[in-house]
Amino acid sequence: xxxxxxxxxxxxxxxxxxxxxxxxxxxxxxxxxxxxxxxxxxxxxxxxxxxxxxxxxxxxxxxxxxxxxxxxxxxxxxxxxxxxxxxxxxxxxxxxxxxxxxxxxxxxxxxxxxxxxxxxxxxxxxxxxxxxxxxxxxxxxxxxxxxxxxxxxxxxxxxxxxxxxxxxxxxxxxxxxxxxxxxxxxxxxxxxxxxxxxxxxxxxxxxxxxxxxxxxxxxxxxxx
Length: 224
What we know:
The protein is mostly helical. The protein is 56% helix and 8% strand.
């Protein structure tokens, strides 16, 4: 995990702590509903190993605070990923064979060291790269469609240098208004919307936002 991974988590943790979030005590308590399916407190609880790892990184936080932060993070990711997947399905967003192959070529370069790893067969390595390529190409195409539909701020993230966070916010608000997801716990709800509305320091300048080609094909810098 790099410093660029840690900083957003620290900001997020500050929100969680400032809001005084307490995860529900009852393991079977329903804290949210997503596309008609209940989400319980127990299914969002982190593994102890994850708690220990983050507490090592965020050493000023107690185990309780780290656990609370990870519950909120899990809820946010579950909702966001499900909403994005629904948006992509409803708009028939699928990468072309050319886009997937382009992503595969980039991933093959980035993971060149795997070729010399005798722990995995060539077939396993290729399957891994293909899966990554499909996911990366679809993520880019979904981001492109979201930005073209809603506009808004775009930020640099390690897994997606063109992440349309402004469009994410509008989309999540629409799905919430439609009743596609509801967060029952008032403090978790407040923290979720606070995180969705975060102001990022690494916003991509408007003139550098370019979805005409996949980001991994672009040689120009994304930010000043």
